[in-house]
Amino acid sequence: DVKVTQSSRYLVKRTGEKVFLECVQDMDHENMFWYRQDPGLGLRLIYFSYDVKMKEKGDIPEGYSVSREKKERFSLILESASTNQTSMYLCASTPGRRGPYNEQFFGPGTRLTVL
Amino acid sequence: GQSLEQPSEVTAVEGAIVQINCTYQTSGFYGLSWYQQHDGGAPTFLSYNGLDGLEETGRFSSFLSRSDSYGYLLLQELQMKDSASYFCLLYNQGGKLIFGQGTELSVKP
Q1: Could you tell me the mean pLDDT of each successive run of 10 residues in chain A, 115 residues long?
Q2: Taking CA atoms, what residue in A is nearest to B46?
Q3: Within an 8 Å CB–CB cutoff, is residue B34 touching chain A?
């Protein structure tokens, strides 16, 4: 089974802190994604990566950055956390080169609260 | 613009059949997928339609009609464990992922 893991299930941080969310997948997938999920808004894509050291902005990249130094690991960084970044963060991966995606494999999510 | 519309809530009883619709406004896309998400859990893939027509996977089926700009997820023989959120996901030809806002399904005894 494909396994996507995220570093924390729950995280509480203070405004202005630098926050790292890590995602690891064990199936050698090329593509990895970071989303946030908020009630009534569905999933929104923050960033994605289709190869090591490659990244592309999604729909809401402001306030976030990402890093993909190894194929299996995709990190989301909040440079200076703000209260409006309180959300559920979901990581996902898919196999195959850049192109139409079929099944996305999601991690369990990290519920981040910024105080 | 590009958007996917789903009903926000649906309620049904055990053993019944329920259909969750997903209508879209976009031109040129590869396919439509459906995911299930239990409260507090990770979304899991249910079905994908690349072509028009019906795809059946056990109790769940999914349908796509490009000419009518909509798709649906059909859940048969509903069970209590089917209570969850269901969302559709569209892949357009620009490589953009477009998500529906999700439909909360409540299955009553």
Answers
A1: 88 97 94 92 92 93 97 97 97 76 87 97
A2: A103
A3: no
